[in-house]
Design brief:
The complex is a heterodimer.
Chain A lengths: L4 H10 L7 E4 L2 H11 L3 E5 L12 E4 L2 H13 L10 E5 L3 E12 L4 E7 L6 H7 L4 E5 L8 H10 L4 H20 L2 E12 L4 E3 L3 E4 L11 H5 L7 H8 L3 E4 L4 E5 L2 H13 L6 E4 L6 H12 L6 E8 L4 H14 L6 E7 L2 H10 L8 H11 L3
Helix pairs in contact in A: 2-3, 5-6, 9-13, 10-11, 11-12
Chain B lengths: L9 E5 L4 H13 L2 E6 L7 E2 L2 E4 L2 H7 L4 E4 L3 H13 L5 E3 L6 H13 L4 E2 L5 E4 L3 E4 L8 E8 L3 H12 L4 E6 L10 H9 L6 E7 L4 H11 L6 E6 L23 H10 L3 E3 L4 H6 L9
Parallel strand pairs in B: 1-2, 1-5, 2-4, 5-6, 6-7, 10-11, 10-12, 12-13, 13-14
Antiparallel strand pairs in B: 3-4, 8-9, 8-11
Helix pairs in contact in B: 3-4, 7-8
The chains are: A alpha+beta, B alpha/beta.
């Protein structure tokens, strides 16, 4: 779960991480009032979860409250990669000397957390990684002991700081790491992390992504995790509400399968045979009739879907359960789109018998079914 | 012994009294797996499917000389369950549990590694050495004994591909899921080493997917060691959009990293033949042409 910048910063403040003084608001009038309270020059930032808001016009500067109101209104009117900001953050503008980049990431290959840092922040860090990899500091953290003060000091030194600044930056890095532990974050990233004219360090921007699997440890985020962000389409929200792993795609062939890998492979296969999948939908390894019915219901409610391909390789899942789910939908809601079914594995014959009772048939082989679903079968 | 498990494997089931644990204990016993004890705290003294249940791994081992564990314990308790198994000297420890926090998995895997124990998973379908032993939730009947080692990041896709191999008359030495999570005890490189040293394995199938760099790392290892056995692969997620998690916690393209195209390129560059579709794998192993797109 990605947190909004203002949420991440509120967690950071609790851990003693310096952030700019700011106010989060929901209207442009409130933005003006916020500026009055803050004084000086401000920066107005769209609170969206997609990356790249700066380039999309989601960050603006103002020196007068009325100006802030107008800039905020502009930001509220923007669609940033499809996401509309419901809130903006009005912050005091920092007197910046230098912009750094610091990120604490899950390092899958090394099975630990790794600090990535650069004295050249504020810009697209992937570009730095590509063009000047020597400017990117990598520091692996012990998976059990985590970041010790000497780890943080090492990173701060490599970023070019000494004396009192070394201590300041070491503390800040240690606290960013603590944030990753306390909130089970898979990503903590400050870009830019600003060195001010006075030589202090401030997390001018902060991105935190919490590990969805850890939410049982963070009951205070339970409600928040149900909130639909701009990154989730209405259809995705509907599917997830019903317990389905669901990602909307651009095509017109609905896809249902059991198991993430099999569903990905099914999507690839339909494409291979010339079709264009409308979604990723995993009913899960041990799916029952209800899961399948829910998936079919959600997908056939989508206007753009022209046909639905149900691909089940039953192991734990049983074909008779899948067939019951499909027949249930047929009886109660009706089948609104042509259906291609592939069913193989546990209780296959019983499943086919149930399908036949509702006038439906199923393929044994995934390739044959995918070819038909791809639209080569004359729908 | 074959890779990880075989006839000599004597397992305990941690979390045996839960729905999944109990159900799969029966299926594993039916397959012929030797299971002599189960563990569920506070359920000691009962039995499940004829298997006696103990409160701790240590007390179970007083009664049954086990050498492996399979874990169905719910996610919040799985890390410590795995550590308990490792502490008791069990190896391998197979963690079926889905939804374990990444930090817990990271710590659990590091703990096992320091003690030279292998953790398979988490979020894995488990391990099967066809005809000998099954410690996992995979349907036993799609596998057949043979000479192909198979490692995968996915469950049902493993069954799909194993079934197509079996139908094509290609049996398997050992098949295992490395798990769909960001942190797993085994990666493809670890498994390639095991298959290299296993006399029963003649060739290797890798089933990858988007996210992370396990496939790229495998490719580098194959090149650097001039890997002595033929390797073929399939990578799922060619059509996956960036930034979206495709079901598995680990299946996400971040920035320009983790795409199927990059993985396929890395593997192809070191001589690994990559099937365009799952049904192409048996053909690749038999040296035939792939199925034709329309």
């Amino acid at each position: 779960m990605k947190l909004f910048e203002y949420e991440a910063k509120s967690l950071a403040q609790n851990l003693g991480i310096p952030t700019p003084k700011g106010v989060v608001v929901a209207t442009s009038e409130e933005a003006r009032d916020a500026h009055k309270r803050l004084g000086g020059d401000v920066v107005i930032k769209a609170q969206v979860l997609v990356a790249g808001r700066g380039k999309a016009g989601g960050i603006k500067f103002a020196s007068k409250p009325d100006e802030t109101r107008d800039r905020a209104a502009e930001i509220f009117g923007l669609s940033i990669k499809g996401e509309k900001a419901k809130k903006v953050l009005v912050e005091q503008r920092l007197a910046t000397k230098k912009e750094l980049f610091v990120s604490i990431v899950q390092d899958r290959a090394n099975r630990c957390q790794t600090v990535l840092a650069s004295a050249q922040g504020g810009i697209d860090i992937e570009q730095v990684a590509r063009e000047a990899p020597e400017r990117l500091v990598h520091h692996r953290l012990d998976p059990v002991f985590g970041m010790r003060s000497f780890d943080a000091r090492d990173v701060a030194l490599k970023l070019g700081y000494g004396g009192q600044q070394l201590n300041l930056l070491t503390d800040l890095l240690s606290n960013l790491y603590r944030l990753s532990v306390v909130y089970d974050a898979e990503l903590v990233e400050s870009n830019p992390l600003v060195e001010t004219q006075e030589g202090k360090f401030v997390a001018a921007d902060l991105r935190v992504t919490m590990d969805d699997n850890s939410l049982f440890r963070h009951p205070e985020f339970q409600e928040r995790s149900k909130e639909v962000s701009g990154e989730v389409s209405p259809l995705e929200a509907k599917a997830r509400e019903r317990g389905l792993a669901f990602v909307e795609l651009e095509g017109d062939i609905g896809i249902i399968g059991n198991g993430a890998g099999l569903v990905m492979a099914t999507i690839d296969l339909v494409k291979y045979y010339g079709g264009n999948p409308a979604n990723f939908c995993d009913v899960g390894g041990g799916a029952n009739a209800d899961h399948v019915a829910a998936a079919l219901d959600v997908i056939q409610s989508s206007e753009k879907v022209r046909a639905v391909f149900v691909n089940i390789l039953a192991g734990i899942t049983r074909c008779d359960e899948v067939a019951k789910g499909i027949i249930e939908v047929k009886k109660v809601l009706g089948l609104k789109k042509p259906l291609v079914i592939r069913m193989s594995g546990t209780n296959q014959e019983e499943g086919k018998r149930i399908l036949a009772s509702g006038g439906l048939t199923a393929f044994d082989k995934m390739d044959e079914a995918a070819k038909l679903a791809a639209g080569k079968g004359g729908f | 012994m074959p890779v990880l498990i075989g006839r000599e494997t004597r397992a305990i089931v941690q979390g045996i009294t839960g729905n999944q644990g109990s159900f799969h204990t029966q299926l594993m016993l039916d397959y012929g797996t030797r299971i002599g004890a189960g563990v569920t705290p506070s359920k000691g003294g009962t039995s499940v499917r004829g298997v006696p249940v103990y409160d701790t791994v240590a007390t179970a081992l007083e009664k049954y000389d086990a050498n492996a564990s399979i874990i169905f314990v719910p996610a919040p308790y799985a890390k410590e369950a795995a550590m308990e198994a490792v502490d008791a000297g069990l190896n391998p420890v197979i963690v079926i549990t889905e939804g374990i926090p990444a930090r817990d998995a990271m710590v659990m895997v590091a703990y096992a590694k320091e003690r030279n124990a292998v953790i398979v998973g988490p979020n894995t379908p488990g391990v099967i050495t066809p005809g000998e032993s099954k410690l996992g939730i995979m349907p036993g009947d799609v596998f057949a004994p043979g000479r192909v080692g198979l490692a995968s990041r996915s469950g049902t896709l493993t069954y799909e591909i194993s079934q197509s191999l079996t139908h094509a008359g290609i049996g398997q030495s050992t098949c295992l899921g490395i798990g769909g999570d960001p942190f797993t005890g085994l990666n493809f490189v670890d498994v390639l080493k095991m298959f290299r040293d296993d006399p029963a394995t003649e060739s290797v199938v890798l089933i990858g997917e988007i996210g992370g760099s396990a496939e790229e790392d495998a490719a580098r290892y194959i090149r650097e060691t001039s890997y002595p056995k033929p390797v073929v692969a399939y990578v799922a997620g060619r059509a996956a959009p960036p930034g979206k998690r495709m079901g598995h916690a680990g299946a996400i393209i971040t920035g320009s990293e983790g795409t199927a195209a990059a993985k396929i390129d890395s593997l192809t560059a070191v001589g690994v033949k990559v099937a365009e579709v799952p049904s192409g794998l048996p053909r690749l192993l038999q040296g035939q042409a792939p199925p034709v797109p329309l």
